[in-house]
Design brief:
7% strand; 50% helix; mainly alpha
Length: 145
């Protein structure tokens, strides 16, 4: 087993099948600590970046000159919303911000995990198992020796 001791931090290095058990244990610990183990395993789906809400989704006052063809000015802002429409937009915005924060945290955890993999896996295994455009779960499956 290859280990790297730096500032009292032991890190296993995956260079052969003999290293798998200890490397896998550390990998799982990293994924669990980051709250992404279920996504890595494919148990729960990866989060998609949430779309920002649009004021156009809320209730607006009728625009003077509006006909069946649609509003004369398709650019709707929060100033065009009714009171209820504005409240709805505020709630949608609050939910969006929470979802965006969760997405950003998970994204950072996956980024950290991929960086950890690149530091702890031999160049040969990286070249054969860690295609940069593939998700972390694919890397993990490919690295299983």
């Amino acid at each position: 087993m290859n280990t790297n001791t730096n500032n009292n931090e032991k890190t296993t290095f995956l260079a052969s099948s003999d290293d798998w058990e200890s490397w896998n244990l550390q990998f799982q610990a990293q994924a669990v600590a980051g709250g992404i183990w279920n996504q890595v395993q494919g148990v729960t789906p990866f989060l998609n970046e949430p779309p920002a809400p649009s004021p156009a989704q809320g209730s607006t006052e009728p625009i003077v000159g509006d006909d069946e063809a649609g509003p004369a000015d398709p650019m709707i802002t929060t100033a065009d919303l009714t009171t209820d429409g504005f409240r709805t937009f505020q709630m949608d915005w609050t939910i969006y911000q929470a979802n965006k924060k969760d997405y950003a945290q998970k994204f950072e955890e996956f980024k950290r995990l991929k960086q950890w993999i690149l530091k702890t896996v031999s160049l040969h295994y990286q070249e054969t198992s860690c295609d940069p455009i593939q998700p972390t779960g694919h890397w993990y499956t490919a690295l299983k020796i």
